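Re: Re: token formats

Sure, here are both.
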Amino acid sequence: MKGILFTVLLCFGFSAHCQELQLSKIDTTQYFDFWVGKWKATYDEGNGVQQYGINTIDKILDGTVVRETFELDGGQNKGFKGTSISVYQPQLKRWKQAWADNQGGYFDFEGEFIGDKRIFKTQIFERGEKRIQQRMVFYNIKHDSFTWDWEASADGGETWKLSWRILYERME
């Protein structure tokens, strides 16, 4: 009997551990706490060759700001580095993120949440006849892994096209 009970409890615990981290069960200020840690970032360079990077996330300023430090280890973009800070603004009830990188890139994002997807998106800007918007989408979020997509829209956010997908695996 003890063996059966142990097996049931083990299976239940494993199942709960592997489930996606649902937004409905998390306080708004903790929507990005899953991200804290050191991550191996694996992506396809477009030629079928997988490349890797490291993304280290911590909380600063009394735990109110999520800080990201990203670096690509190899491939065509070896040496690419970037950093972001993400913060929940309780007075406005929204998440914001600012990103900067060593190639002069800068993005200002606003958080949006659809189902259990965590999304940071830019404002729409005009480029010729097109209304461009970019976003990053965090999904399939589990304790030790998640998927991140960089997407672009040329029609003001009506439709989205995948530009880059990174699969994250927790290192620490």
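Second one below.
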Amino acid sequence: MSYNIAVAGKGGTGKTSLTGLLIDILLKENKKPILVVDADANANINEVLGVEVEETIGQIEKKLI
């Protein structure tokens, strides 16, 4: 089963922190890969999760065009 989950709200309300915690819980419960897309101009969910960004959507788009 798959889910699409979006987290939205005003700036400074803890969206990134909430998303990081939610991802952590989902990984522990399901043990399946999760695709995370951070559409924030200051995209930093990778820092919260402690992972390195290999490629951005913008970089992938440039390769396809």
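The radius of gyration is 13 Å. The mean pLDDT is 89.
- S.
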